[in-house]
Amino acid sequence: MEYEVVIGLEVHVQLATESKIFCSCSTDFESKPNTNICPVCCGYPGVLPVLNRRAVELAVRTALALNCKINKRVYFERKNYFYPDLPKNYQISQYELPLAHDGYIVLPSLKRIGIERAHLEEDAGKLVHKGNYSLVDLNRTGIPLLEIVSRPDIRSADEAFDYLNYLKLTIQYIGASSCDMEKGYLRCDANISVRRKGGDILGTKVELKNMNSFRGVRDALLYEAKRQIKCLDEGKKIYQET
To answer: Which of 138, 121, 2, 1 is nearest to 51 (CA)?
Structure first.
């Protein structure tokens, strides 16, 4: 039986602002640990976030470069997490009314990849593991991120590689971010499933995370596609997992 791969990508881009998205703290997260923090980005009771105008400008510029439609009215919501590096126990993000939606990228192959949405959110802190201890650095907490979510239009690991390269070049060209993956300025999660070729029903998706290069994304997608096809050929069930 012939199969086809269905891939969607979620890309988080750290925007090139001098201050954080909801406070005036510096975005230099490589400073001495826990020096660029304040009651706002640490989520103290009674503080009120104020949106960074520059972050919105860079996000809109990126969305327009990706042929997105801009929503004139947006709002933010709390996304609950319980992680040691997220002091508020929630992330301020967008869901119902994101900044932008319905865009697309045209690859060098002339294939069109849809952009489902692009929304603003804040980054979490950083955990440093040393021996039996985990140290928390909150300098990165509150740095503005633009999350760009593709539609599941990608059909191979090579297409995903081309999409990421084109996206990175576009963002760098318009000056919205340096996209330095070694420093975490651009991070990518991938959702992949396999279905019978020509079918309309999507298979069970698996999410791949913590990939620190485009080649790493491509290799992980190739491996996962082969694994899922092998499972289907052997009559085994594919479980939704990360």
So the answer is: 121
Whole-number CA gyration radius for the chain: 19
The tokens for 26 are 């510096």
pLDDT score of 212 more than 90: no
Looking at residue 230, its pLDDT comes to 94
Query: Which single residue is written with the structure tokens 């640990």?
Result: 33
SS3 at position 110: coil
Of 190, 186, 161, nearest to 172 (Cα)?
A: 186
Total-model pTM: 0.94
Q: Would you say 61 and 53 are in contact if contact means Cβ atoms under 8 Å apart?
A: no
Question: For the segment 30-71, what is each residue's pLDDT rounded down to a tens digit?
Answer: 899 999 999 999 989 999 999 999 999 999 999 999 999 999
- Residue identified by tokens 């042929």 is 67
Residue whose structure tokens are 């230099």: 28
DSSP 154: B
Cβ-count burial 104-121 (b if 16+ within 10 Å, e if not): ebeeeeeeebbbbbbbbb
* Dihedral angle of Cα 91, 18, 138, 11, to the nearest 10 degrees: 50
- CA angle, 87 as apex, 101 and 12 as ends, to 5°? 30
CA-based max dimension of the chain: 60
Tokens of 167: 């996206």
- What tokens does 75 get? 């709002």
Q: List the domain boundaries for the chain.
A: 14-177
Closest CA to 143 of 5, 30, 7: 30
Return the C-alpha torsion angle 56, 140, 138, 121, nearest 10: 40
